[in-house]
Sequence to fold (196 residues):
Amino acid sequence: MATVLGSVRAFFAQSAFTTDEENPGDVVARERLLDRAMGEGRFRKSSEKLRRGRVPAEGLALVARDPDGHVIGTVRLWNVEAGVDASGNGVPALLLGPLAVDPDHEGKGIGAALMRAAITEAARRHHGAVLLVGDAPYYERFGFFADKAQHLVMPGPFERHRFLAMELKEGWLDGAVGVLVPAGRRLGRGVVRKAA
Fold:
């Protein structure tokens, strides 16, 4: 019986993780995790055009850590303008991505926990909408749907059915039309130039 309990405790200890705000010391571990989980193709995505030369939205770069403090998951949100409204003004929004979990830790709810933390923090910071490119069956459970992004386009090749949006404030994207463009803070000196 003691062996079974020890095995159960070991399983739960291995699957434990916490979510936290990314800090400068996480950058190398985060890049290695993204390389492992997504490969070099991640730099050719349309989303990269919106992230290049920018830093994530304030307080919206999150990581998951194992009990030893190692980065095992990551998500970042970026300031963008989601086309324009009827008056021709840019519609402020966030672009989520990439969301990645270390392959050795998949299936433990880490991605879902990062998604919930990111959405909660974005709402707490009074953002109006979040957009992403991803698999609808996964992201619909968090409230992301293609119809909310139907009049918007990415700045390069993308699959329409994978372009999803979630309104944090009802009606935020009503009337928004056009191409997403980058917004927010630009990279400065002393900031790592490789943004993924």
In short: The radius of gyration is 18 Å. The mean pLDDT is 88.
